[in-house]
Amino acid sequence: MEGSVNSDNKSKGVGCQDGKSGGKMQNVTMGMEVFDCSICSDPLRPPIFQCSKGNSICSPCCYKLPDSDRSATQRCYIMERVVDNIFIPCKHGCNKKITYYKKDAHEEECPNGPCVCPVSGCGFIAPNAALLDHLTTLHKLPTTRIELFESFWLPVQPGSHVLCSGHGRLFLLDVVTLESFGHAVSLVCVRPETPRATVDVHVEFSRFEGHIQVSKFEIKPDGERKQCLCVVPGRETDININIMICMAYYDNDELQEEDEEEDDDMHEYNYDFDQDEDDDNEDEGAED
């Protein structure tokens, strides 16, 4: 079964169901609360359990139940199949197909989420695509297309330079002249307000034959967005620096894989839990 739900909140959704046997297509309207845990009201994600009263509850809530109530619960595989095939659009307008229970995690890290203009004193807020246009038209900054995990060369010239990756990520490279010393090179990571990505930066440059200076930096999700990469001595502006930018999660599929690994661990544990219950039931049947 493959379905999609279009919903801006939890009250209504529009879905499309494709049955495996007959290939049926059907538009439906539903209340999204049915896909929430009956106890904590969070979106249900596998493994899902059904209590003795027939309510669907999430795994954390199931483990918090008293032993007498938890022993009466059973795995609800049909609901797991349902929630794994309920898809909703991202509120930021990206083309990702996301399951309902991964909505919040995706929208927090979505590259289309609102970002603050990195230019000092400017309070413009917009998704990366609109922000790139803002930086190039209003601030008239030069732009260079880069690829994450691949090195590139840029001249050490005073001013700001926009770096745009193939995944829509934006960075602002700042070069500031230091009086009687040289140039300070800094990198600003442009990202949504609640990022989960860690940025690793590798920088190297050479001032003369036989000389090379290498630096590595890490910009953490909860750290400062601006990082001073290096200081290039001298007043010359004909020196080039080599930069490579890496991100721990440069695409939300990475986040999905991380969530699936966690779910797999939970699945494995609960399969054993179910097997123990089946063995007990068989023993009781043999005694009868």
Overall description:
The protein has 288 residues and is an alpha+beta fold. The model is unreliable at 1-22 and 250-275 (pLDDT under 50). Helix content is 24%, strand content 33%.
Features:
288 residues; alpha+beta; five-stranded mixed sheet; four-stranded antiparallel sheet; 19 strands; 24% helix; 33% strand; elongated
β-strand amount: 25-35%
Q: How far apart lie the N and C ends?
A: 40 Å
Count the E strands. 19
Count of discrete alpha- or pi-helical segments spanning 4 or more residues: 6
Radius of gyration: 26 Å
Low-confidence segments: 1-22, 250-275
Adjacency order of strands in the biggest sheet: 11-13-14-15-18
Average pLDDT value? 76
Question: Into which percent range does the helicity of residues fall?
Answer: 10-25%
| Main beta sheet | 5 strands, mixed
Topology order in helix (H) and strand (E) letters: EEEEEHHEHEEHEEHEEEEEEEEEH
Principal-axis shape equals: elongated
By secondary-structure content and strand pairing, the structural class works out as alpha+beta
